[in-house]
Specification:
The protein is mainly α. It contains ten helices and three strands; from the N terminus they run αβαααααααααββ. It has helices spanning 2-42, 49-69, 78-85, 97-100, 109-112, 119-130, 133-142, 148-165, 175-198, 200-204, and strands spanning 45-46, 209-210, 214-215. A three-stranded antiparallel beta sheet has the order 1-2-3. The N and C termini lie far apart (44 Å). Mean pLDDT is 89; it is low at 216-230.
Length: 230
């Protein structure tokens, strides 16, 4: 029980670090909302409230993910900002590529230690996979023509970008993260596909629609339709 409470506390610490970027993401989303709607209107499209809610959740997730991955470790904690303003540590430390490249974990340790991993290793492996589930899920839910490979492709591209950027912010870069992140996104994409099969009317409400109630998949879409756009 004590171990469970400890892991829950660690998880909550990660969530708290996500919140500042999520607030910034929400502000940007709301600020750009009128412009996006005007752009959709010019194309003869509209995005309903359910899709907008899903899109907002996706933006918040992406902002929170960025807070945990592309900033220096513990950057979004009060302790870091307090010590940075006191001159006790750099505000945004940058690691030279010539130094960080030597610490890349090229060996997929996770795959070699499935039978012997401890609870902390398992927690980190599960976290790296689960945190990317929304990436694949919303990719298939919010854009047209969901496909099994979309979550896989988006997860791989996003994870690779994150791992590359981590070379410059003193974060660990290794193959395990790439594999686990991609697997999580792939799983999320499959969940969205399954949901589409089980509840097609529900998932259709997360899609952009042609005005006057006509769906983007109808035979005669409006000229210049860009149905997959934000």
């Amino acid at each position: 029980m004590d171990d469970l409470l400890w892991y829950l506390e660690i998880t909550w610490d990660y969530v708290k670090q996500m919140l500042p970027c999520m607030v910034i993401g929400a502000v940007c989303f709301l600020a750009l909302l009128p412009r996006r709607r005007r752009g959709l209107y010019r194309r003869g499209l509209e995005s309903g409230p359910i899709r907008e809610a899903g899109l907002l959740v996706f933006v918040l997730f992406c902002a929170g993910l960025a807070a945990l991955t592309v900033f220096p470790s513990s950057f979004w904690t009060l302790a870091h900002w307090r010590e940075a303003f006191q001159g006790l540590r750099p505000f945004f430390p940058i690691t030279p590529l010539s130094q960080s490249v030597g610490y890349i974990g090229w060996t997929p340790y996770f795959l070699d230690s499935l039978q012997t991993m401890g609870s902390w290793t398992f927690y980190m492996a599960a976290a790296n996979a689960l945190i990317f589930v929304p990436m694949g899920f919303f990719t298939n839910l919010l854009w047209r023509k969901p496909r099994w490979w979309k979550g896989l492709a988006v997860g791989l591209c996003v994870s690779f970008t994150i791992e590359f950027l981590q070379l410059f912010v003193n974060r660990s870069t290794d193959v395990d993260d790439l594999i686990l992140n991609t697997a999580g996104a792939f799983l999320g994409g499959l969940v969205a596909l399954l949901l589409g099969k089980l509840a097609p009317k529900l998932t259709s409400r997360f899609q952009v629609e042609v005005r006057h109630g006509r769906k983007t998949g109808d035979p005669k879409p409006a000229p210049g339709t860009g149905a997959g756009q934000l």
